Amino acid sequence: MLRLVLCGVVAVGMAVGLSEAKESPKNANGTSFHGHFVSFSNGTLTIASKKHGQKSFQLSAQTRALVWTGSTRPQVLGAAAVLSKLGPNDRVVVHLGRNGKVVAVGINPPHKSRKKAA
User: What's the fold here for domain 24-117?
Assistant: First the structure.
């Protein structure tokens, strides 16, 4: 009986450990918001899109910025340094995880129609 209970506890512990996997920017369960840069101050990023209007997102110190320059996509730790240099015509994609928090911010990502043509 004790062995059965211990095996059950271990199985539940393993299941919980596996479900807490680290989220990636391309998480299938998360959502993304596309738009143009409006402002960034005090850790709050504001973007504007035709579909959602203006939307604000709170960024943490661990938020990554994915900056596209041509075909490369380097990861930059600390999105605040990158976002402070953006202008109003820069395209921004905010990737949210399953918990609704910002996982990553894409800056000037390739457009879908351009991606297919290449």
Answer: OB fold (Dihydrolipoamide Acetyltransferase, E2P) (2.40.50)
